[in-house]
Amino acid sequence: MTKKKKTPATEPGRITNVAEARAWAAKHHVTEIECLVPDLAGVARGKIMPSSKFFDDTAMALPSSIFMQTISGEYPEETADFRYDPSDGDIELRPDFSTLCEVPWANDPTAQVIHDAVYHDGRAVEIAPRQVLKRVIDLYREQGWVPVVAPELEFYLVKRNTDPDYPLEPPIGRSGRPEAGRRSYSISAVNEFDDLFEDIYAFAEAQQLEVDTLIHEEGAAQMEINLRHGDPLTLCDQVFLLKRTIREAALKHDIYATFMAKPIANEPGSAMHIHQSVLSAKNGRNIFTDDDGRPTPEFFNFIAGQQRYVPDVTCMLAPYVNSYRRLVKGGSAPVNVLWGYDNRTTGLRIPPSSPANRRVENRAPSSDANPYLAIAASLACGYLGLTQRLTPSEPVSGSARSDEFDLPVGLLEAVDLFEESEDLAPLLGRSFLTTFAAVKRAEFATFMRVISPWEREFLLLNV
Description:
By secondary structure, the chain is α+β, with helices and mostly antiparallel strands. The chain contains 14 helices and 15 strands. It has a domain at about 15-125: Ubiquitin-like (UB roll) (Roll).
């Protein structure tokens, strides 16, 4: 059972230039504009300015190093492959007016718009996540293909927690009690937080985010929101804004919403499953299905590309040390790149569908992943399978949970695989690859400076 509420269909390109944006802002009495750009972690960076100043000159600058920060705000050390701009010069942010929308939780009439990062000569900043995705989409376009995706986003609701030394706990719902036990697909468990979800839906509707369904997942106060399928860039913009929306709505109700991959010990991790199909640009038909409704060679090529290359991009799908606490053998998250029809124990699942909607679900990504990078990585794997005409293994019909790891077991191993992949570098960009790898290694070094409760419990008096 699911709780479902329709939102208005987004009108692609409904606002295309500064004049239309100015008129829209005037109509909505907007006084401030939040100028956003997603960084490597998917965090919103940028500036806030009065709308009058924004429309007088929409160009703005930020240091190029904003795409080189770790999640803790530090910077990697330079290496032979990774170098900073010695002057830390500015890059320009240019608004994509099609993303202009309200900030519905703001006290004063406020709008937000997502920006692209470019150099002063107009070249795109190749390490900016939005540009990495655009690069992969362009590769599909050159082949006469149009990729289509639909992300599923899992997250936990938790009590406010201001001390990171204390474990997270489920919040108190309207019954006055925290959840206990497994409540998968429970309507009553969702209804515990009805007021919160009404706010999420209202905020999403105000931003024209195409939320489809809401369900309760397996963990205590773990939820999943699905978005409708569509253009990858549009869907990533929506996930980027929806994460922010869910967190803001939760804060309004004095609780936290977290997209950590494994926020609570002994509870399931949170995923961002990605459904993928490819259309012909010529006729709009799914290239995974032939005229008789049967799967095509391209369908199997795409699966094989995911099997071959998903291990190499795992650090983009599971980008933090915590991400690998979700990817454990025997758990609900698959650690393999096997595939099967309607098989949730395989890393690659083929959901039941009509021939026209035949698709491949990548179940490896975690909810902490930057949506632009996770979807770029997954589509890049499929692209390599299509262009190299790879052949997949046989589908798995039973449980695949007993099989050995196909995915790397930790962040450093994942980064090594990523950096060594010669096939991925031309697709994602060598400068992005080296920058992302440097940032991930720096984050691991930061993590290693922290002493965990496990070490104090088992090592303090025993070794």
